[in-house]
Design brief:
alpha/beta; Rossmann fold; Arc Repressor Mutant, subunit A; 2 domains; two-stranded parallel sheet; 14 helices; 9 strands; globular; HTH_AraC; GlxA family transcriptional regulator
Length: 326
């Protein structure tokens, strides 16, 4: 019986949990099904920094031959790959290898054009950045995507969902069910399920009026509603709405709404090349100074200071960001 060769190309500091879940799912499959044979290999894309957690496997030595499937795994968007590694990946794809990205592993695939015209599951915190950088890729908020010969998972526990889907397609749903039972997985999730947890779970409350009000806020970031308008939409008085927010979220509606808009602004600031003024306007602030003042009061730094600090610490900078003055 010929083993199906699966490789994992790893960047430094990738989450050990994500890698362990993938490895365990495949090992369990071999244990519970005698006809399953996987040969796993782990390849380090870059040498780890001194003192960093040591990833399994060997350093890449110039070849990626003989693999049936290869998964790229990174915890943060990595810097562009060396030419030799890029060439090796493209050669592997031309040879018929099914290739996939897990968590930020979709970035190097997109850089090489290997996801152009394909669906790719992108973690929600990188959605804006990834979509701006790679408009030819169909970025989704799914748990995972299997589009022809391209696989992707948003990260975390979704890698297990992807591997269970792989087992089901390769060996049948019965094996995938047996593996999930062995791993005490409550249910096998479909790839098309969305990443974000239900709003009432995030809020820690199932109060229907609170849920309705927050959904309204999230849907009206660029042109914020007043507290009176929100109360009218959810059919309560302003005073009653304020009591609900105070009881469940320990803040008044206007404060929660402002924090929601500021967090959205910070996400856009870190993940897109939009100007600070554009971001402020798109998050409901009437002017640059108003946005900067509110941002500094909440985060302790101006938008420009926060963006510059983030860029100086990131190997994957926003190369297309405009020069901003003032």
């Amino acid at each position: 019986m010929t083993a199906h060769r699966i490789g994992f190309l790893l960047w430094p500091n990738c989450k050990p949990l994500t890698l362990a879940l993938a490895e365990e799912a495949l090992h369990v499959a071999q244990r519970v099904h005698p006809d399953v044979a996987y040969e796993l290999s782990f390849i380090q894309a870059e040498p780890p920094a001194d003192g960093a957690w040591r990833l399994p496997g060997e350093a890449w030595l110039g070849k990626l031959d003989g693999l049936h499937k290869l998964f790229l795994l990174a915890d943060e968007p990595p810097a562009p790959m060396p030419l030799a590694l890029s060439s090796a990946l493209k050669h592997l794809v031309r040879a018929g290898c099914v290739i996939g990205g897990i968590s930020a592993g979709v970035y190097p695939l997109a850089q090489l054009g290997l996801l152009d015209g394909y669906r790719a599951a992108v973690h929600w915190r990188w959605q804006d950045d990834f979509s701006e950088r790679f408009p030819k890729v169909i970025a989704t908020s799914h748990l995972f995507d299997w589009d022809r010969d391209r696989l992707s998972a948003c990260g975390g526990l979704a890698v297990l969902d992807l591997l269970l889907a792989l087992l089901a397609r390769d060996h049948g749903a019965e094996l995938a069910g047996a593996v999930s039972e062995e791993l005490v997985v409550e249910r096998i999730r479909e790839g098309s399920e969305r990443q974000r947890i239900p709003l009432q779970n995030r809020l820690g409350s199932s109060h229907p009026k609170l849920t309705q009000a927050v959904l309204l806020m999230e849907a009206n970031i660029e042109e914020p509603l007043t507290t009176d308008e929100i109360a009218q939409h959810v059919c309560v008085s302003r005073r009653q709405l304020e009591r609900i927010f105070k009881q469940y979220l320990n803040r008044v509606p206007s404060q929660y709404y402002l924090e929601l808009r500021l967090n959205k602004a910070r996400q856009l600031l870190m993940q897109t090349s939009k100007s600070i003024i554009q971001i402020g306007l798109s998050c409901g602030f009437s002017s640059g100074p108003h946005f900067s003042s509110a941002y500094r009061n909440f985060f302790g730094a101006t938008p420009r200071e926060d963006r510059n600090q983030r860029r100086s610490n990131s190997p994957f900078e926003l190369t297309s960001a405009p020069v901003e003055r003032g």
